């Protein structure tokens, strides 16, 4: 099997947290978002990985490969493919058509977090349901996070007693007076609509779906960047009315007097989309916002700490004191760091409080500051007496003395607007 990681069209705010402008290299626990994904594939013996990226990311990703190649298995093959940042997912697959030769292909985004997940379970879900696509969905940890609880809801319509997906509506597609298609109502009690699941951004699909996506990508009319452009359940599977279900089953019974070869020829081709609901300890989600990235890091540290303490003591662990401060950091003895992820090379002055935040490499927080629920990009300097709550600061920005802000984004630019003006 092969895997494709989409990194060419990443959220603008996330890319500006790093000097290299690549979300794939954002720190995550003891690695990066990209190294986390690669570890999941290596664990499942998926050794042919294609990373789709924009030209501006080439140097950073090439350097990443050179630094990490020695820890990968000898048979592991990671190749980079440059595409324009505005390419749709279908267009990307069209450009990769000659490289995709496996019967099944995993597809995911560079911003997808899969720390506690076995990809083999996703593939087995595909096989068990005789589907052509399987997608990972998970419940956001709304009980542990107010920020996650406030995220827009998505709508997932599934069969009542199985994992087959009949319809999926992203939060951006749901309107106040949205109406479900009549074909879904025709199934009656056989349908379950859920708003507690979220698309993680990880899929496995059959060769036929990849080929179909490649053909769509050649059509200039189709420019949607979403994977759901070509794995829409309504287009991959026809849903019979409830009264026709029993008749359809009877019609599909093979002729028992036929030869054995006829039995195999009558087996239906894989169709439709199924879901795998991930319920692991660590959160599985797709990051599209700096604050979601910071909150994901906090939850990962918190839950990892609880699991570690439970395994060591055999008792229920405590969620306190789960900060992670990496090497080459200077933290004043009179400062406190609680529930935060501090990356290498950071300097924290006196009488500073850092709560539930993520500081990327080289951040300087001067005396008397309060940083709560924030993410500070690489090389950010916050001068004395700043109070930031639920804020995101782009790389290499300076926050003036005494700044007091809440729920703001500092130093970010609209990349698409910048390109159009040049």
Automatic annotation (TrEMBL):
Transmembrane segments: none annotated. The keyword Cytoplasm applies. GO terms for cellular component: cytosol; eukaryotic translation initiation factor 2B complex. One of its GO terms (molecular function) is translation initiation factor activity. Its main location: cytoplasm. The keyword GTP-binding does not apply. GO terms for biological process: cytoplasmic translational initiation. Signal peptide: none annotated. InterPro entries: eIF2B_gamma, GlmU/GlgC-like_hexapep, Nucleotide-diphossugar_trans. Belongs to the eIF-2B gamma/epsilon subunits family. Component of the translation initiation factor 2B (eIF2B) complex which is a heterodecamer of two sets of five different subunits: alpha, beta, gamma, delta and epsilon. Subunits alpha, beta and delta comprise a regulatory subcomplex and subunits epsilon and gamma comprise a catalytic subcomplex. Within the complex, the hexameric regulatory complex resides at the center, with the two heterodimeric catalytic subcomplexes bound on opposite sides. This is Translation initiation factor eIF2B subunit gamma. It comes from Calicophoron daubneyi. The lineage of its organism: Eukaryota, Metazoa, Spiralia, Lophotrochozoa, Platyhelminthes.
